[in-house]
Amino acid sequence: MSEQTINRAQVLYEHLRAHTIESRVTGKKQLLMHPPEGLDKEELSALLALIGTEDAPQELKDIASLSGRKDVYYYDGSIMTKHYAELDTLLQEKDILRTIASVTRSDSAIYPRPTQFSKLQDVPFRFSRDELLGAAARMRFEPEYEDVQLIEASNGAQAFFSTKYLTRDYAQSLLEWIEVEEPANP
Fold first, then answer.
1. Buried (b) or exposed (e) across 11-38, using 16+ Cβ within 10 A?
2. Which helix or strand (DSSP H or E) is residue 121 part of?
3. What pLDDT shows up at residue 45?
4. What is the pLDDT of residues 114-138, one digit of tens each?
5. What 3-state DSSP class applies to 176?
């Protein structure tokens, strides 16, 4: 591999790492429309094709890729988890239903807890209450999301949970504890 290829690989690495540090994945289409300074589209395409292969330059060994529905996205896997990269991919593709389902299923399975609207209204999601309620309504008609359901605490706080991992009663009691009982009983 020539020194020029290595230098170009370093330019691409630094560009992708900078975006990753900002907690963002980088889409291939965006990269090709606006290549990093010092790279043309052909050089960039050739380097991107090497990512994840044995032939990838050493500078690009930590760069990972994942395919969304609309594009391929790149990130530095040494500083961003695959799960976070998947979430950012969904956010960049503006796929609110898949984003909510992914977060809800993960929260329900791992912690276990329901996913509060307040979490989805905060960084990095920033969904409005209307967007969340609209998504909940649309999910009821999509077989892919039949396990993602809505609950409400006695104080009006709402959350999603997955019936794959939590029963409605258990999710309801968890939300009530988080929203009402725990704050009242520190």
1. bbbebbbebbeeebbbbbeebeeebbee
2. none
3. 95
4. 999 999 999 899 999 999 999 999 9
5. helix
Question: Once rounded to an integer, what is the mean pLDDT over residues 35-40?
Answer: 92
Name, in order, each residue with C-beta under 8 angstroms of 110's C-beta and a sequence gap of 6 or more: none
Residue type, 115: T
**Six-digit token pair at 167?**
């029963």
User: For the residues 30-59, what does the mean pLDDT come to?
Assistant: 94
Structure tokens at 23: 């907690």
- Give the contacts of 25 (CB within 8 A, at least 6 positions apart): 19, 66, 73, 74, 75, 80, 85, 88, 89, 92
Query: Stretch 153-161: mean pLDDT, rounded?
Result: 97
Structure tokens belonging to residue 42: 């052909």
**How does the average pLDDT of the chain come out, rounded?**
94
Buried b (16+ CB within 10 A) or exposed e, 132-148: beebbeebeeeeebebb
Any idea what DSSP says for residue 36?
P
Give the number of residues written for the chain: 186
Indicate the DSSP class of residue 82.
Answer: H
